[in-house]
Amino acid sequence: QVQLVDSGGGSVEAGGSLRLSCAASGNTYNKYCMGWFRQAPGKEREGVAAIDSDGAASYADSVKGRFTIAQDNAKNTVYLQMNSLKPEDTATYYCAAVYPPEKLYTVVCKWDTTVGMDYWGRGTLVTISS
């Protein structure tokens, strides 16, 4: 089993920045696909960004150029640096992961790979005021 702990949320004004962290522990692997998702009240969960163990990253168009996903493999941690935040970024952000060694098929690691994620954090709330 793998446990994910996401953190770093808070309240900031529009134009500000936040850095979210996702620490993985337990039975992790060298090969992985990890991503960030968000869900606003009354809306469905949507993908934000994803990164694989080789460092290849992808982003939703809505955050491209503002958000950056990064990894620190030594710490088993993935980050989401969020800049130029907008009120529409307000949501609960969740980190998630899937590990190819646990699968019999090829894992496609993209920002919108929601259904393929097997492990999820509890979420961290991000509130952006205008």
Structure characterization notes:
This protein is mainly beta and 130 residues long. It has strands spanning 2-7, 10-13, 18-26, 33-39, 46-52, 57-59, 67-72, 77-82, 91-98, 119-120, 124-129. It starts with a strand and ends with a strand. The mean pLDDT is 94.
Low-confidence residue ranges: none
Q: Please give the number of β-strands.
A: 11
In what range is the share of β-strand residues?
Answer: over 45%
Residue-averaged pLDDT: 94
Largest sheet: 7 strands, mixed
State the helicity in percent bands: under 10%
The shape, in one word, is globular
Query: What structural class should be given to the helix and strand makeup?
Result: mainly beta
H/E series, N to C? EEEEEEEEEEE
State the separation between the terminal residues, measured CA to CA.
40 Å
State the helix count: 0
- Radius of gyration based on Cα positions: 14 Å
